[in-house]
Amino acid sequence: MGFDAPSVDEGTGDSQTVFVGAIGIPIEVDIGGPIVLRFPLPFTPIIPGMVADIGFYSLIGAVTLRLLRSIRVRALVKQDRCAGCGYDLHGRDSCPECGGLRYILR
Fold first, then answer.
1. Quick check: 53 and 46 in contact, CB under 8 A?
2. Helix, strand, coil in percent for the chain, rounding step 5
3. Does residue 51 register a pLDDT over 90?
């Protein structure tokens, strides 16, 4: 089966289908006689859809990472620890380990 040449269904022998940029997948269905249905599968990427998917899932990933970071920082600040490295900040205004300043929750 060539991609440029029409393909004749083996079941009926009278329908012709041309798949340009796709691969035909024969599926045999027995309804009173053999019928071969062909559904095209793309073998080249659909660029606008791929770009949209990359953008969408990147945005979801960035929002998730930002949310997890803010939850971690809030938990560390409540325990009077440095938000950057987790060092104990009891009685200090800045972190002696990483130099970060003390966060104040509002």
1. no
2. 30, 25, 45
3. yes
> What b/e readout covers 1-16, taking b as 16+ CB neighbours within 10 angstroms?
eeeeeebebebeeeee
What is the Cα–Cα distance from 18 to 5, expressed in whole angstroms? 7
As separate numbers, helices (DSSP H) first and strands (DSSP E) second, the chain gives 1, 4
Give the residues across from 28 on adjacent strands. 36
Of 2-11, 33-42, 91-100, the range with the lowest mean pLDDT is: 2-11
Q: What is the separation, in whole angstroms, between the first and last Cα of the chain? A: 69
- Contact indicator for 77, 103 with CB cutoff of 8 Å: yes
| CB contact at 8 A, 80 and 89 | yes
27: which 2 tokens?
Answer: 């599926």
> Which residue do the tokens 């004749």 mark?
8
Least confident of 12-21, 41-50, 83-92: 12-21
